[in-house]
Specification:
Protein name: Cupin
InterPro entries: RmlC-like_jellyroll, RmlC_Cupin_sf
Distance between the termini: 38 Å
CATH class: Mainly Beta
Largest sheet: 8 strands, antiparallel
Number of helices: 0
Shape: globular
Organism: Brevibacillus brevis (Bacillus brevis)
Helix content: under 10%
Length: 118
C-alpha cells in the first residue's frame, strides 16, 4: 500500500483572478483530458471570477460557502452538494468559514446522469 496527501499543505496557492486564502492540491490527470484536484478555501477564502476552460464539477467535501455562475447570484453550498459549470461559463466560489471541494474538469462530464439536482 502507498499513502498520499492532498491536504492544504500539499497544495499550491491560487493567486490568479484576485483569489484569496485558496490552495489547490492536484490529485490526478487521466490518460484522457480529465483533471482532478482538491481546492481548500480558508476563512474568507475566494476563487475569483473566471471562465471554466472545460466543464467543471465542484464537489464540496467539507465546510460551506457559496458559488455563482455568470448571472452573479451567490448560491449557498455545503458538504455533500455540488455545482457544475459548462466550458466558457464564468464562475466564482467563496466561503466565510472554510470549505474544501474536489474539482473534476474535463470533456464529457454529465453529472445529471448520476446525481439528483437540487
Amino acid at each position: 500500500m502507498k499513502r498520499f496527501r492532498f491536504d492544504q499543505e500539499a497544495g499550491r496557492k491560487i493567486d490568479r483572478f484576485d483569489s484569496a486564502h485558496a490552495t489547490i492540491s492536484r490529485i490526478m490527470q487521466t490518460p484522457g483530458p480529465v483533471h482532478i484536484g482538491c481546492i481548500h478555501l480558508g476563512a474568507g477564502g475566494v476563487v475569483g471570477y473566471h471562465p471554466a476552460v472545460v466543464p467543471q464539477l465542484f464537489l464540496v467535501v467539507s465546510g460551506e460557502g457559496w458559488v455563482c455562475g455568470e448571472e452573479g447570484e451567490r448560491v449557498l453550498i455545503s458538504a455533500g452538494q455540488a455545482a457544475f459549470w459548462t466550458a466558457g461559463e464564468g464562475h466564482e466560489s467563496g466561503t466565510e468559514t472554510g470549505m474544501a471541494a474536489l474539482i473534476i474538469e474535463g470533456e464529457g462530464l454529465e453529472p445529471e446522469r448520476y446525481m439528483p439536482q437540487l
